[in-house]
Amino acid sequence: MSGREQAFITALRQIAGDPAARNLSDDAAVLPRPSGDLVLSHDIIVENVHYFPSDPPETVAQKLVGVNLSDLAAKGAKPIGALMGYSLGPDYKWDQAFLKGLESVCHQYNLPLLGGDTVAVPRHTGHFSAMTVIGLAPSCGVPDRRAAKEGDELWVTSPIGDAGFGLNLLKQKKNINHSAQEKLVQAYRSPEPRLKEGIWLAPHVHAMADISDGLLIDAERIANASGLAVRIRLDRVPLSSEAISCFGDTKSTRLQAVTAGDDYQLIMACAANKRQELLKLSKEKQFDLYRVGQLTAGSGLSLFYGAEPIKQPDRLGYLHG
Amino acid sequence: MSGREQAFITALRQIAGDPAARNLSDDAAVLPRPSGDLVLSHDIIVENVHYFPSDPPETVAQKLVGVNLSDLAAKGAKPIGALMGYSLGPDYKWDQAFLKGLESVCHQYNLPLLGGDTVAVPRHTGHFSAMTVIGLAPSCGVPDRRAAKEGDELWVTSPIGDAGFGLNLLKQKKNINHSAQEKLVQAYRSPEPRLKEGIWLAPHVHAMADISDGLLIDAERIANASGLAVRIRLDRVPLSSEAISCFGDTKSTRLQAVTAGDDYQLIMACAANKRQELLKLSKEKQFDLYRVGQLTAGSGLSLFYGAEPIKQPDRLGYLHG
């Protein structure tokens, strides 16, 4: 182990304070027997695929944790630990800033860092990091992407599209000088997993997932996995006031919002007779919930603006690679 | 998701048959409540750091699984699942061969693949893969690297050094044309985690770890973590007949063996009065176990050949980066 690697791990120890982490001094973490089923997810993020080399390293850590926790949110699970794989790049200041972001985001979501691995990689290898998160399943059972029922209504948390708009701003290399633009870029760089909402919603849904690749594609995945068709009402999709102030509220903006990735909002299929219950829940717990479509017999996706059928865009969502 | 990524995941589904994997169609895996404590480990392997671009892809999969399971072996844990992160490179044939190796090694160790993530990476990014393994802790409790006691004897499974010798052969770009050389290269490329031995040994040890960076450095880590000194008898270190036939049995060979990484043998500290019990266990279960040293009061590492003190080598083990 190099001095650089050693210094990094020493700094990590400050973050990994849970006894299960064994001070990062053992071969493995030891987690006391969980009180229920486990939900497990693993996501990697890679420079120039999931973030720009120019993104602040703190936000890269926030993205790593955010996208992983979002999978737990989609299953209504409570995070109980994480393991991280990290490529040490040539720039130790970058690594230190990443650690600062990691500490802050682990603290924010009360996520114990239990262990992992650090590798100094050859200079030409782009930076990447991997995370596995472990969550405690909700006692109501874990919502499945495959369990939507005919007649279910499709709901989403809000807003939709902000991260995609932020990505576009960065791609256009515009000066980000309005607070609205900053908010959109922040949505792209530092996604906020809907953990609380996932836990509240899990007992009320048939199927739930997170929107990682775009509302349309993730809605279609629920429909496909459940053997159903899905209809989406474009006019009902919740845009943020920041998105509207930067891009206006047009059909084209809305099509952009529903085909953009990295939202990390929740999308769920719920029995139609649960509508009042869901609205009451969102009011009580003070989070936004929008009914944007319906699951019906058949297959495939159809899109409407009010009653008007809309041509399906060529690209339903974000396609890596 | 690109067609290439989709094809890879379709192929992965053939391997991830456990119901907990949810057919790789959901956001996360759902593992029924485990019957005991959990042991968790995460290791990444990177091209040009942990393996050569010319290594057969099947063996890269074996190494990924082997190094991860070795951490469970060191804690006496029984594997119950794994999640994998994988960088899709430019060569799909390579990926397919990797999958073939993955399927075979998961089958060999009865390891359910539960989920993970696949990312098509930019061409210049070297190949890497990450794995998190989850194991069921032994009912006797999980051996800790930090729990060796003064007077403990130090034991290792056998052989020591083969992987390092294999690596040297590959570095020298020699033609590998003897079965002994092949065996050494195989030890480097396809480490065999000592899972069964770990489970058998766990109830008898104070401390246990796997030898990933070299016998000396890993012995010193146990000593440091336990606040003790360690004495190693070089003449007692078990070399394989293949290592001896290729490199002879000299002090220099032995020094090479104890400072080479990638052994993935187990190293453990046991009470001196357990000696007969351990020898009986190794005879009954038919695996080799060698007493190579002792933990004493104090700190640091000292090295002997018989009664003769040996100068400590500059490099105690394999240092990545």
Automatic annotation (TrEMBL), chains A, B:
Q: Which GO terms describe its molecular function?
A: ATP binding; magnesium ion binding; thiamine-phosphate kinase activity
Q: Which residues bind Mg(2+) 3?
A: 27, 71, 210
Annotated PurM-like N-terminal domain ranges read: 26-136
Top-level enzyme category: transferase
Q: Binding residues for Mg(2+) 1, per the UniProt record?
A: 43, 117
Query: Where does this protein act, in terms of pathway?
Result: Cofactor biosynthesis; thiamine diphosphate biosynthesis; thiamine diphosphate from thiamine phosphate: step 1/1
Gene Ontology BP term (one): thiamine biosynthetic process
Database matches in InterPro entries: PurM-like_C_dom (IPR010918), PurM-like_C_sf (IPR036676), PurM-like_N (IPR016188), PurM-like_N_sf (IPR036921), ThiL-like (IPR006283)
- List residues of the PurM-like C-terminal domain: 149-305
The source's superkingdom equals Bacteria
Task: Please indicate if the UniProt record lists tRNA-binding as a keyword.
Answer: no
* Residues that hold Mg(2+) 4 according to the record: 27, 41, 71
Q: Where does Mg(2+) 2 bind?
A: 43, 71
Specify which residues bind substrate according to the UniProt entry for this protein. Answer: 50, 262, 318
Q: What is its EC number?
A: 2.7.4.16
The UniProt record gives the binding positions of Mg(2+) 5 as 213
Q: Which HAMAP family does the UniProt record give?
A: TMP_kinase
- Tell me its family: Belongs to the thiamine-monophosphate kinase family.
Under the heading NCBIfam families, the entry gives: thiL
Additional comments on file? Reaction mechanism of ThiL seems to utilize a direct, inline transfer of the gamma-phosphate of ATP to TMP rather than a phosphorylated enzyme intermediate.
Q: What is this protein called?
A: Thiamine-monophosphate kinase
Annotated source species = Zymomonas mobilis subsp. mobilis (strain ATCC 31821 / ZM4 / CP4)
Q: Which gene encodes it?
A: thiL
